[in-house]
Design a protein that fits this description.
By secondary structure, the chain is an alpha/beta fold. The protein has ten helices and seven strands.
């Protein structure tokens, strides 16, 4: 909580002018040497003051609170409606037990003491009200900054995925130009796959989606066997490296879209590690003799 300034400003709403001796002494002990203590006795004067000025604390002094909704709540609502967000303390000699719950529900700090303005806990209660408001403001600021960061993470992820998509589209165009006369249509075209290949590819997409989710959670090193199984399914579908990357991007995009308000940065980092590890396994497998042609080769359509 910010410390008391030497000339802190306090506004007190009460039916009669308060006696300030106890409050002044307690503030003086905390370094507030020249407090500005102001008093209003009507709701109209209260709203006029809070509309024009900011205060370190607003004290609503109501000797007996028998009905919160009629005695206190209208004042609090009027204060907030005016645009004032200063901390509020309800000071009372007696608050009916059933009305205490209303104070909590309205998020109003209160002090109940038969000593009223002479209560030793008056300034500590004021400080508690100020501290709660400061924490609420800090939480709002943190939430706003976090939301902005999440939105920026999602924009960055979408930009990276779009760049990778464009890279694949460029490679696809080059492959079409080079292989148009001798190769059938590629992955992603309108051509109908053979039934077996279509079934293999459907299973591959489902398996890869599950692998990606697991990898995001568990990271590298613990899913090597699962990655090898995916490599075998890629070989069965006869996918090129480019088509494998296209499958990967499709599943990453679906996963990122489902994140909602969660950060996508971690997902993107883990996804990059997965495709790198998988392509290394795929390269080693094909170099070892299970060879499959690379990007110009017909693959299993989606």
């Amino acid at each position: 909580m910010s410390p008391w300034s030497a000339a802190a400003r306090l506004l007190c709403f009460a039916s009669e002018r308060p006696h300030w001796v106890n409050l002044t002494l307690q503030l003086d002990a905390r370094g507030c040497r020249s407090p500005r203590l102001e008093w209003v006795s009507t709701e109209a004067d209260l709203i006029a003051q809070v509309h024009e000025h900011e205060f370190d604390i607003l004290i609503l002094a109501i000797a007996h609170v028998n009905h919160f909704e009629s005695q206190v709540q209208p004042l609090v609502q009027s204060i907030r409606t005016s645009g004032n967000l200063d901390p509020v303390l309800l000071l009372s000699e007696q608050i009916q037990p059933r009305e205490l719950a209303r104070c909590y529900e309205a998020n109003v700090e209160f002090l109940q003491s038969s000593l009223y303005w002479d209560a030793p806990a008056l300034v500590p209660a004021i400080e508690r009200a100020r501290r709660r408001l400061q924490l609420a403001r800090e939480h709002q600021t943190w939430g706003r900054e976090r939301q902005q960061k999440l939105q920026q993470d999602h924009r960055d992820s979408e930009r990276i995925l779009e760049q990778q998509r464009r890279m694949l589209d460029d490679l696809r165009s080059l492959a079409h130009a080079a292989e148009l006369d001798r190769d059938p249509p590629e992955y992603g075209s309108d051509a109908r796959p053979r039934s077996a290949e279509r079934n293999f590819f459907t299973e591959l997409k489902s398996y890869y989606a599950a692998l990606l989710r697991s990898y995001v959670v568990m990271g590298t090193g613990s899913l090597s066997e699962e990655i090898r199984q995916v490599v075998l399914q890629i070989e069965m579908c006869n996918l090129s490296v480019r088509e494998t990357m296209a499958l990967h991007l499709e599943q990453v995009e679906e996963l990122v879209r489902g994140l909602g308000n969660r950060s996508s940065r971690h997902v993107m980092n883990r996804a990059d590690m997965l495709i790198l590890e998988l392509l290394m396994h795929l390269a080693e497998t094909r170099r070892g003799g299970v060879g499959q042609p690379e990007d110009g080769k017909q693959g299993c359509p989606g």
